[in-house]
User: Fold this.
Amino acid sequence: MRSFVEFWRRYRQNRAAVGGMIVLVLIALLAILGPFFYPVDPFDMVGQPFSPPLREYPLGTDVSGRDILAGIIRGASVSLLIGIVASLVATVVGVVIGAVAGYYGGLVDDLLMRTAEFFLTIPSFILAVVLVAIFSPYVLSITAAIAVVSWPAVARLTRGEFIAQREREYVQAARALGMPQWEIILIQILPNALPPVIVVSTLTVATAILTESGLSFLGLGDPNLVSWGYMIGVARTALRVAWWMAAIPGVMIVITVIAINLAGEGLNDALNPKLRTR
Amino acid sequence: MVLAAIGIAAAVALLLPTSVAPPTRLLIALASAQVGQNEELFGRAGETRGRTELATRRKGKRTRTAKNRGRLVDSLISVGALVIYAMPVFWLGLMLIVFFSITLGALPSGGMTDVRAAPAGLAYVADVVRHALLPVLTMGLFYVAIYTRLMRASMLEVYALDFITTARAKGVPERRIAWSHAARNALLPVVTLAGLQFGHLLGGSVLVETVFGWPGLGRLVFDSLLQRDLNLLLGLLFVSSAVVVLANLAADLTYGLLDPRIVHR
Assistant:
C-alpha cells in the first residue's frame, strides 16, 4: 500500500498522464455502463439512413440506418478488450521468452532471438492480416494475431534488461546461496526488469487498438461485433455525402490512443524516477 | 535506379540549409537516397519525391523541438506528433480525402492516373504525382510523427551528456552544439528504427493503398491473400523481408558515418 501511495505521488506530477488516465476511465465506463443506459442494438436498423448527428439520433445513423452512438458504445468494449487482452498475452509470452533468453544466453538466446527476429522481418500488420485471414476472423483469432505480432518487441526489451541484471552482485549472492535458477529469474531479477516492460506493454495496448481498427477496416473484424474500425470501413463508401460517419469513430480511436500514450508516459515517469529529470 | 538515387541525393545535398553541418547533410542525403532506392523497389516512383522532401524537412523539425524543450514550440510539435501518431493511418487518409478532394476539390481521391484522359510523357508524370500527393502525405505524416517523438527523446538524452557541457564551456555556438554535436549523436537510434521500419512500410501501405485505390504492392498483398494466391503472397513477403535485411545493412553502415568510433571490419 505504501509503495502504491508513493507510485501515485510520482504519477500525479505528470498532469498530462493524469488527464490520460481520467479519459481512459471514462472510456472504460462508457464501454461497461453504456449498454445499460443506451440499450440500442448497434446492428438494428432504427431509422432513416444518413441522418446527421444531433437530429433524431445523438450521433446520427449510418448507411443502413443503424445508430452510430450504439456502435460507438459497443465498439469501445471491443477495442479496449482486444487491445488489453492482446497486450497482456504478448507481455506474458514476451517476458517469459525474453527472460529465458537473457538469463541463459548462449545457444538458447540465439535460438529464441532469431525466432523473434523472424517475426520482426515480416511487416507486423501484414502478418496479422495473414493470420486473421487463415483462422477466419473472430475475436479470439484477432486477439491472438495481434499478440503474435506484438510479443517480439517485449521479448527483446526483457532480454536486454535481464542481460544487464544477471551479473549484478545481488544475483551472484543469490546464486552463491544456492537459490534455484527459476527462483532467481522470477523473484530476484524479474521485479527489477519489469518497470520498462510495463511501460512498453501499456503502449502495446494502443498499437493493438490501432491494429484491430485496421483489420476491421479491411473487413477482417469479427462479423458479430461492431468495432470502430468496422464503422469507418462502412462509412468509407459514403464519404462524399456523410463525412461525419467516418470521422466520429476515428475521433474515438484517436482519443483512446492518445490517452493510453499519455498514461504510458506517466507510468514511465513514476516507475523510472531516475529518468524523470530528463 | 542507382543513378536516380544519386541524383536525388545530390539535389537534396544542395538544397539543404547551410546551417546543417556538412557531415549531417551528407547523411541526410544518403538517407534520402536510400528512401529513393527502396521506394523504387516497391515500384512507386511517384512517392519517392514527396517522401524525400518529407525526410529532409522532418529532421529539422525534430531537432528544433528538443532544443527548445518546454517552450511553446516544443509543446506544439510534441502535441501535434502525438495526435498524428494516435491516428489510424487509414482514417487520416480518409480525412485528407474529405478535406482536399471533397471540400476543396483540389486533388483526386483515388487511383494512380486519371482514367478519363491518357496523358503521355511529362503530363503523365504530373498526373501520377498529383494522384500520389495524398497517399504520400498520409504515410509521410505518420512516419514524421514517429521519428519526431523518437528524435526528441534522443536529443534530450544526448543533451544531458558531459560532452555537451564541455562544448558549451569551450564556447561553441549553441546552434553548432545542437546540430553537429547533439543531433549527430542523437540520430543513431533514429537510424536503427528507420532500418527496422523500412520493411514495415509495406504493412502500412496495405491500408493506405486500400483507401486511395493505389495499385501498389500493399494492395497486391491483400488481394493475393483474399484470392488464396499463396505463391504471390510468399514472393511478396520474401521481397519485404529482403528489404528489411538490406535496410538494416544500410542502417549499420550509416552508424559508421555518424560516429567515427564505429568501425566496420
